[in-house]
Write a structure and sequence with these properties.
The chain is an alpha+beta fold and about 190 residues long. It has a domain at about 5-120: Jelly Rolls (Sandwich), CATH 2.60.120. It has 8 helices and 8 strands. The chain has helices spanning about 5-15, 20-25, 85-90, 110-120, 120-145, 150-160, 170-175, 180-190; strands spanning about 30-35, 40, 50-55, 55-60, 70-75, 80, 95-100, 100-110. A hairpin with a 5-residue loop joins β4 and β5. The chain is globular, with a radius of gyration of 18 Å.
C-alpha cells in the first residue's frame, strides 16, 4: 500500500517501530478521488480522518445566501476533516471537495480508536495533530479580527506560496474573507508599490 508518505510524516512526530508501521498499512485505506468530487457534504457525518498523499482539497461552508466560505485547504502531507463532526458524530455543516485528482489515506473513527488501544503511540501522535490544528485555528481567528485585508493577503502569500498555482483567486479570496474583486485591487496596489 502507498503509506510510505504517511509513515514518514508520523516518524517526524514520533519514530515508529516495525509493528507500528505495519499497523499504518492495516488501518489506513487508500482512496482515489476525482477533481470536484466530495469526500464530505453538509448533513453527512465526518466518519474518517483524511491524509492527503497527492492532490488538493478545500473545506468550506455555504451560508443561508448560498455564498461559499473556505475554511481550509489541504495538499500533500496535510490532514483535512471536520473535527467537530468526527468527534461528536453529529451532521456536518461543511463540504470537503477535491480541487484536483487526488489520492488520500483515510482511517475510520472506530479503526482509529482501535489503533490507539493497540498502539498507544498513535494516541500521542493524534493529540499533537489536534493541538497543532487548534493553534492554527486560533492564530487564523486572531489574524482575521486584528488585521487588514491587505495584511491577511500578505500573510497568506508568505505562509502558503505553493497554493497560488493550484488554487484560484476566487478560492483564495473566499478563504481571506473578501471578494475576488477586492483581492484583485489589493494585488494591483501591491504590484505598483
Amino acid at each position: 500500500m502507498n503509506t510510505k508518505l504517511l509513515i514518514e510524516y508520523f516518524h517526524k512526530l514520533l519514530p515508529l517501530d516495525e509493528e507500528e508501521m505495519a499497523a499504518v498499512d492495516r488501518f489506513f485505506k487508500l482512496r482515489k478521488v476525482k477533481r470536484r468530487q466530495f469526500i464530505l457534504q453538509e448533513g453527512g457525518v465526518s466518519a474518517v480522518n483524511t491524509f492527503v498523499i497527492e492532490g488538493c482539497f478545500r473545506m468550506f461552508m455555504v451560508d443561508e445566501n448560498g455564498k461559499e466560505h473556505n475554511l481550509q485547504f489541504a495538499i500533500e502531507n496535510w490532514w483535512i476533516g471536520d473535527i467537530g463532526s468526527f468527534h461528536s458524530e453529529e451532521p456536518s455543516r461543511l463540504y470537503i471537495e477535491a480541487l484536483e485528482h487526488s489520492t488520500i489515506l483515510q482511517i475510520a473513527k472506530e479503526e482509529q480508536l482501535r489503533l490507539f488501544v493497540e498502539f498507544p503511540k498513535f494516541n500521542r501522535i493524534f493529540r499533537v495533530l489536534t493541538e497543532n490544528a487548534l493553534v492554527s485555528a486560533q492564530r487564523r481567528i486572531l489574524h482575521n479580527i486584528s488585521s487588514t485585508a491587505e495584511e491577511r493577503y500578505l500573510d497568506f502569500v508568505e505562509r502558503y506560496p505553493y497554493f497560488f498555482h493550484r488554487i484560484s483567486n476566487v478560492q483564495i479570496a473566499s478563504y481571506l474573507g473578501m471578494t475576488p474583486e477586492f483581492l484583485s485591487t489589493i494585488r494591483k496596489k501591491l504590484a505598483k508599490s
